[in-house]
Write a structure and sequence with these properties.
Elements: H1 7-18, E1 27-31, H2 36-52, E2 55-62, H3 69-83, E3 87-92, H4 102-121, E4 125-127, H5 132-145, H6 148-152, E5 158-159, E6 162-163, H7 171-181, H8 197-212, H9 216-244, E7 251-252, H10 253-256, H11 261-274, H12 284-295, E8 303-304, E9 310-314, E10 317-321
Helix pairs in contact: 1-2, 1-7, 2-7, 5-9, 9-11
The protein binds adenosine-5'-triphosphate.
């Protein structure tokens, strides 16, 4: 019988593979909430890091939103120091300064603090403990929100300085890892509280799995990977074509009209970003209004975009202006 790798071996292997390009002397940080996923990941980094000659660092963010969050953060930092991390810090943030609901503002505050700390440490990578189950939830949420291929592509294994080395591993691997290694993860009380959408989604996923079968999580995650590959390919094609067009200040709508939708809408998006619009501010509605000026423009008035920008069509060209 072939030996089945233990969860400990699988996680360490995932960390080695996900970071195999990092040379000796790199600073590698992990964002650790103290929960099972990021605690298992941190423990695996503490094992792999010194063997690869990396400096290891751990940051835990205290959002100050729950009673005892400071004690939890202190426990994580103490554990990291005992475990041999070269650096370990609590980052205190004020989500109240950020717009959006409680989860979104906590996330924005967390990334701002992590970005700053990563720059201070000079890190080559910051690891996040998202698992295959998180990926499946992201895809489901993307479907529900109608977020299009970009949303359905899910989270990326690598984005900027951030890496998700355990994105292909099921959540049960991290729980099993913690058991095998005798780690005592912190269990977020909100995970069992349906007030928060993400927690409710976890429950919904269990129900869907019972109805649709045990392959659901893996299939959703695999779909994300396939969509991501297609999105990346088409994005690259569009970027190439846009460069060939010479990044025009006025978009030649008449030339775009006959192009396939996937290419046409990407060219429109690239042009809008060039006009100073932020990717986050551009909704499906804005993009559809601009596309309508390209393909179905008779009788179309100008499209109103965020920041008071207006896109209008004149003599076959789209212009973007602030009246
Ligand atoms: N308070 C925090 N401090 C540091 N990193 C965090 C914090 N909260 C989340 N993260 C990072 O973001 C990742 C995703 O967080 P999220 O809360 O969505 O996932 P989770 O599945 O509950 O993870 P975990 O079991 O690690 O808490 C975590 O694995 C961790 O790397």
């Amino acid at each position: 019988m072939p030996k089945i790798p233990s969860s400990v071996a699988r996680l360490r292997h995932a960390v080695r593979r996900g970071l195999e390009d990092l040379p000796r002397g790199s600073v590698v940080a992990v964002a650790c909430s103290g929960g099972p996923d990021s605690l298992a990941l941190a423990d695996a980094l503490a094992f792999v890091g010194p063997r690869r000659g990396w400096t290891t660092a751990l940051a835990t963010v205290d959002h100050g939103l729950q009673e005892g969050s400071d004690a939890r953060a202190a426990d994580v930092v103490d554990w990291a120091k005992e475990t041999g991390f070269d650096h370990a810090r609590t980052l205190r943030v004020e989500p109240g300064r950020f717009a959006g609901g409680p989860e979104a503002s906590a996330r924005d505050a967390r990334y701002e603090a992590l970005n700053r700390q990563a720059a201070e440490w000079g890190t080559a990578a910051v690891l996040l403990g998202h698992t295959r189950d998180d990926q499946a939830e992201t895809v489901l949420l993307g479907l529900a929100r109608g977020s299009g291929p970009r949303g359905l592509a899910g989270m990326r294994a690598r984005r900027g300085v951030y890496r998700r080395p355990i994105l292909d591993l099921p959540r049960e691997t991290t729980h099993d890892y913690c058991l095998q290694r005798g780690l005592d993860p912190w269990i977020d009380p909100h995970n069992s509280d349906s007030r928060f959408k993400r927690s409710a989604l976890r429950e919904a996923m269990d129900t869907l799995t019972a109805v649709l079968g045990h392959g659901l999580v893996a299939n959703l995650a695999r779909t994300a990977g396939q969509v991501a590959a297609d999105v990346d390919f088409t994005d690259a094609l569009a970027a190439e074509r846009y460069a060939e067009m010479g990044s025009p200040s006025e978009l030649p709508a008449a030339d775009l009209e006959g192009l396939p939708e996937a290419l046409r809408t990407r060219l429109e998006r690239l042009w809008l970003l060039d006009q100073g619009l932020s990717a986050a501010g551009l909704t499906h509605r804005h993009l559809a209004a601009v596309d309508a000026l390209v393909v179905d423009w008779s009788g179309q008035g100008p499209a109103a975009l965020p920041g008071g920008l207006v896109v209008a069509r004149k003599k076959g060209l789209l212009t973007c202006s602030r009246p």
